[in-house]
Amino acid sequence: MNFKKATISDLAEMQQLYTETIQSVCKNDYDPKQIEVWISGVQNTERWLDVIQTQFVLLAIIATKTVGFGTLKNGNYIDFFYIHKDYQKQGIAHKLLTELELEAKRQHSKIITSDISITARPFFEKSGFVVKAEQINIRSGVELINYKMEKELQL
After folding, report:
1. At CA 14, angle to CA 114 and CA 108, rounded to 5?
2. Residue 120 in 3-state DSSP?
3. Pairing verdict, β 130-139 and 2-5
4. How much is the pTM?
5. 128 Cβ contact list (under 8 Å, min separation 6)
């Protein structure tokens, strides 16, 4: 597995991975309406372009396939973190998170935070993150629960 920084040309593959992963991996924790509202964010092209242009966006690649991606906003916030539905439980998330934490340290961050789904919470807890708050987000009238989590980085 290799890592590379994302460019605009990677956007369609990232959006497909995002959509398919949520639909497949999160279906035990979120109902169909919640998933539909969550993945509707893929239509906000302006937001996705902004992410690629302003955040540290790292792709995990096996052969020529993107199998995961994570983004670091402002050096201390994981905005996106998704592993391809067919590549779960293979250590990719751990390696990707390690790379994002290294980048946060390079940017002199002492704490890294994220808003974590119900599905991803156990992984992040095993990785040293602690829950600071449960959050209820209302999108298009649909309630989505996630968790504000953070981890102190060892410098």
Report:
1. 40
2. coil
3. unpaired
4. 0.96
5. 151
